[in-house]
Write a structure and sequence with these properties.
Layout: H1 2-28, H2 33-36, H3 51-71, H4 84-88, E1 93-96, E2 128-129, E3 142-149, E4 162-164, E5 167-172, E6 176-181, E7 187-190, E8 204-206, E9 215-228, E10 243-249, E11 254-256, E12 259-264, E13 268-273, E14 279-284, E15 290-293, E16 296-299, E17 309-312, E18 317-321, E19 343-348, E20 353-359, E21 375-381, E22 384-392, E23 398-402, E24 412-416, E25 430-432, H5 455-465, E26 482-484, E27 496-499, E28 504-510, E29 514-520, E30 531-537, E31 552-558, E32 563-569, H6 574-578, E33 588-595, E34 599-605, E35 609-614, E36 620-625, E37 635-639, E38 642-649, H7 653-658, E39 668-674
Parallel strand pairs: 2-33
Antiparallel strand pairs: 1-24, 3-39, 4-5, 5-6, 6-7, 8-9, 9-10, 11-12, 12-13, 13-14, 15-16, 17-18, 18-19, 19-20, 21-22, 22-23, 24-25, 26-29, 27-28, 28-31, 29-30, 31-32, 33-34, 34-35, 35-36, 37-38, 38-39
């Protein structure tokens, strides 16, 4: 009898399991199998980029959460509005005091050499050149030296070229890597076609040794690639015929000792042997930090890195910046500060451990991540040269931290932020509100910011936006939209440039307002809400931003005292100029490079120009209108006693989404020299 009862119970359980399997199969069979083959990607909730996987994940977790909420009292409180009274009792602001324990400089000022062996110039990512053949006195005499165009290909090039021993190495549209003659721009070789992610944000050159050939190294999604600099062919003894399987990476690799170091989207630092490509070690910078909601564990830590990496080579310290945790606007399933997201992180490469991390925006629900590579440099403080690492942010802040301990060089002010207006969301009580360093762009939208070039339209325009939410880290509300900066605002992936000789920081930035909204999309009977977000640029009927200019800026910031020395509009709309509205600036994604010749080379504006500025005052010394918008920071180099400036002009995918009638895609490299 017992045997028959047990057998029956097993059959019932098997039947239930079978029905459950059929229930999920209708969703599972829709999953893109190619996505599943990307084994290096972590399948946490925040990384799921397949809508069916997301739907499946949320559906079954909500089932469990509803069960717990219905049956356990302590889980009901989580899905409630945040307590405004508790927030009101907190002080209006607090300050993280500046460090007095400075890391004193012992190596002197390290500037870039004539060769530009890594995208962004060198391991410091400062985009500074010691060249001064072209300078503030003669820049007006520049002329076009040559152009290179690969016909039939269009794309979005975000990596600036490198230059070594007379040759230019760069990705081009279509997914190729090419080598060009530095004097003529003639094609020396072209690689096989890799795809649009080949050297997405840059590449690095290794000079070789007595045995091994010099090589170009770059990432192509889940591959590390090594090419022979002489012919563009694969280095056969590197991995499997020049290719090594790695974690997903789009940024410029770093060469440290006999290692190639990358930072991957599964939130890890990976090191590969420089010669063989063999994986040597892997370090997770994001530690698992699971939080239980309604009986289900969610990972509330970390985020993907996409801004870039830099290094203090003598000390063996790697620096990286991280993005915001997913989802952008809905943080209900990732409570807490979400450590390691929106952060600048330092890693000891020899000991293979995290030294420190510094977070700008805690529990980010505004897409205010750190998008640019950190810059390793030195500044003067209290009469001493000290070593720092800095990075510009989408909030238009400049984080300046001690290289060894990660503490701020200036007092770091935090102000009380609003509570959430949606159930389940718990915002961080304080967010950065810096006075010093002075913000280089707008980060708080106000009603007074609404503007139109046509004064007759202004009243109607303000009326249309009067019911929107805006302000300091303003939270989202169901049924009401937000106006905010920072989406593509402040600095972006191109970051800035530092002149280590005079401790000046130059950065291009965007001041474009965005409309964002959050909607509840689940069955309202469900106890667990599900939210989806939408966002777009806030433009008028003719495509101009609805806020006061400048819409794009170039800023010079004194790193020694954190104060802005000068700031000028970056770019211009010809149609507005014709009616007397000048110097508006435009949205831009190119970048700026500085030199010892006291010039700044900048591009990326909607007017398709490359500009040469006087670095002392921001005065335009030279400008040239290109066929397409500059899409990456310029590079400068010396060859046969002649200094050249080169820039990619490809249009840019990001700008095309906002201004489709103004952006034409191309595939052009332009070089300039003195007459």
């Amino acid at each position: 009898m017992i045997f028959r009862y047990t057998l029956m119970k097993k059959k019932i359980l098997f039947f239930i399991f079978f029905l459950f399997s059929l229930w999920i199969w209708k969703d599972f069979k829709k999953i893109d199998s190619s996505y599943l083959n990307q084994s290096k990607i972590t399948y946490d909730y925040e990384n799921l980029n397949n809508k069916y996987l997301k739907s499946l994940y949320i559906k079954y977790n909500n089932f469990l959460e509803n069960f717990y909420i219905k049956n356990f009292e302590d889980h009901k409180n989580y899905w409630a509005l945040e307590d405004q009274d508790l927030r009101d009792k907190l002080p209006l602001s607090k300050t993280i005091n500046a460090t007095s324990d400075f890391t004193i400089n012992i190596h002197g000022i390290i500037s870039n050499q004539n060769n530009w062996f890594r995208s962004h110039g060198n391991n410091h990512s400062n985009r500074y050149s010691k060249l001064k053949n072209i300078n503030f006195k003669n820049a007006k005499d520049l002329e076009l030296a040559w152009t290179f165009e690969m016909t039939g290909e269009k794309g979005d090039i975000q990596a600036n070229p490198i230059f070594v021993d007379g040759k230019i190495f760069t990705p081009i549209a279509g997914g190729y890597i090419v080598a060009l003659d530095g004097e003529t721009g003639e094609l020396i070789w072209k690689s096989e076609k890799f795809g649009n992610f080949a050297a997405k944000r840059g590449l690095v050159y290794w000079k070789g040794n007595k045995i091994e050939k010099p090589r170009i190294i770059f990432s192509n999604r889940e591959r590390l690639i090594a090419l022979d600099v002489k012919n563009g062919k694969f280095i056969k003894n590197f991995g499997k015929n020049g290719k090594v399987r790695s974690g997903l990476n789009v940024m410029t690799p770093l060469i440290y000792k006999d290692n190639i170091v990358i930072v991957t989207w599964d939130k890890a630092i990976e090191a590969y042997d420089l010669i063989s490509g063999k994986n040597k070690w892997k370090l997770k910078y994001q530690k698992k930090n699971n939080y239980r909601i309604g009986g289900v564990k969610y990972n509330n830590a970390g985020s993907n890195p996409w801004g870039g990496i830099s290094a203090d080579i003598p000390r063996g310290i790697l620096y990286l910046t991280t993005g915001n945790p997913h989802h952008y606007f809905d943080g209900s399933r990732r409570p807490g500060k979400n450590p390691m997201s929106n952060s600048l992180i330092a890693v000891d490469l020899d000991k293979k451990k995290i030294i420190w991390d510094f977070q700008e925006t805690a529990h980010d629900i505004w897409n205010s991540d750190l998008p640019a590579p950190p810059i390793v440099t030195s500044i003067k403080k209290d009469g001493r040269l000290i070593d720092v690492v800095l990075t510009p942010t989408k909030r238009s802040n400049t984080l300046i931290l001690d290289r060894k301990n990660g503490k701020p060089i200036f007092n770091y002010k935090l102000s009380k932020a609003p509570v959430s207006k949606i159930v389940g969301e718990k915002t961080n009580p304080y967010q950065p509100d810096l006075d010093i360093p002075q913000p280089f762009g707008k980060n708080k939208f106000s009603f007074e910011d609404i503007w139109s070039y046509n004064t007759s339209k202004l009243k109607k325009l303000k009326e249309s936006y009067k019911d929107y939410n805006f302000g300091f880290y303003e939270t989202y509300e169901i049924g009401r939209k937000n106006l905010q900066y920072s989406f593509n605002g402040g600095a972006e992936w191109m970051g800035g440039s530092v002149n280590p000789e005079n401790q000046m920081f130059y950065v291009t930035s965007n001041n474009i307002p965005w409309i964002a909204e959050l909607k509840r999309v689940d069955d309202k009977k469900n106890l667990i809400p599900e939210y989806k977000s939408k966002f777009k640029r806030a433009l008028d009927d003719l495509g101009y931003p609805i806020t006061k200019p400048p819409w794009g800026s170039l800023t010079a910031l004194n790193l020694n005292n954190g104060k802005i020395v000068w700031q000028v509009p970056f770019g211009e709309y010809e149609n507005l100029k014709k009616i007397g509205i000048e110097k508006t600036g435009t949205e831009n994604f190119g970048g700026v490079t500085s030199t010892a010749g006291q010039i700044l080379i900048a591009t990326g504006t909607l007017d398709k120009k490359i500009f040469i500025y006087d670095s002392k005052n921001g005065k335009i010394l030279y400008e040239y209108e290109m066929p397409y918008i500059g899409s990456s920071p310029p590079t400068t180099y010396l060859y046969k006693d002649q200094q050249y400036i080169i820039v990619h002009a490809s249009g840019g995918r990001t700008l095309k989404k906002g201004y489709p009638n103004m952006v034409v895609s191309g595939n052009l490299i332009l070089a300039f020299k003195l007459k």
